[in-house]
Amino acid sequence: xxxxxxxxxxxxxxxxxxPNRIGNQAMKAIETRPVYFSSVSVAELGFKRSxxxxxxxxxxxxxxxxxxxxxxxxxxxxAVAFARFPASQVPDxxxxxxxxxxxxxxxxxxxxxxxxxxxxFDWVLDATT
Length: 129
Description:
single chain; 129 residues; alpha/beta; Rossmann fold; 5-stranded parallel sheet; 5 strands
């Protein structure tokens, strides 16, 4: 049995700026709690901001905590799980780290990433549904 939901970086951006992009099923899951975000998402926001892909500042994570979304670190268990997700299937290492965080913590990952969704893991939920 899964113990909650991990929101990937894009979903966290939507939660903050465009909640209407999140589908009904995913929104119901988010509203049920417990809901987490990965420390990797904060790093990803910082990286993407530095290369001009996102305007969002990584300090937005404080607002996520304030609304009850809990931070979850990329720890040793997640690092071990990371090896289960080959780059040939999901090339972005940050995406694989977020996947590994969900897997290591027995969480359902809510994502809109097509490469992750294409893997058809039973613990991944399409954020647009």
